[in-house]
């Protein structure tokens, strides 16, 4: 059977996870293997992007030098969007027009990427995208393991699943198996978070 006749939703199993593991070592070049039509994905970040990240970070008084941690044009773009979202959220609070408590800001950092890498390495458990409350409600990612424990990517700490949910008022938005996480990364050329339309297109749910 020609590969052209295989539904894209059926891209799964060991081949997908193998591709994902390759992406762990070289995400930009792996994008070419899985057939990206977006050459910008492999581009390094621009000087303007890095300067903008540095300015936003200093304005928000974030100590982590994110401008030194982004490796690609797309990753820099996502970081800028996250920092701009946080800036807008703080401005709303300062003007006494806070964001609705049901609306989450986006966590700055690399929680989505780090959690994705962890589950691909472990080959078990669930990659979870959701929200946690640490002063503000923020979007976050973590990995829940079959052992009943949970790995948190920002700190690298392990919690009991129940303890984490109680401590951080965690709420689940989506869960992904290792295979599903690999499919989504291969097809969208990013490591999350993923839009509802993308999930429906590639996972059929």
In short:
The protein is built from 8 helices and 6 strands.
Low-confidence stretches: 5-11, 26-37, 98-106
**Fraction in beta strands:** 15-25%
Straight-line N-to-C gap: 26 Å
- Please count the helical segments: 8
- State the major sheet: 6 strands, mixed
Helices and strands, in N-to-C order? Answer: HHHHEHEEEEHEHH
This entry's quaternary arrangement is: single chain
Mean pLDDT: 76
Overall number of structural domains: 2
Q: Percent of residues in helical segments? A: 40-55%
Indicate the radius of gyration in whole angstroms: 18 Å
Structural class: alpha+beta
Walk me through what this model shows:
This protein has 205 residues and is an alpha+beta fold. The chain folds into two domains: 3-26 and 102-203, no CATH class; 43-99. Helix content is 46%, strand content 17%. It is built from eight helices and six strands; from the N terminus they run ααααβαββββαβαα. It has helices at 13-25, 27-33, 47-59, 73-94, 111-122, 161-168, 178-188, 196-203, and strands at residues 105-106, 126-134, 136-144, 149-152, 157-160, 171-176. Strands 1, 2, 3, 4, 5 and 6 form a six-stranded mixed beta sheet that branches. α1 (13-25) packs across α7 (178-188) and α5 (111-122) crosses α7. The radius of gyration is 18 Å and the shape is globular. It starts with 12 loop residues before the first helix and ends with a helix. 30% of the residues are buried. Mean pLDDT is 76; it is low at 5-11, 26-37 and 98-106.
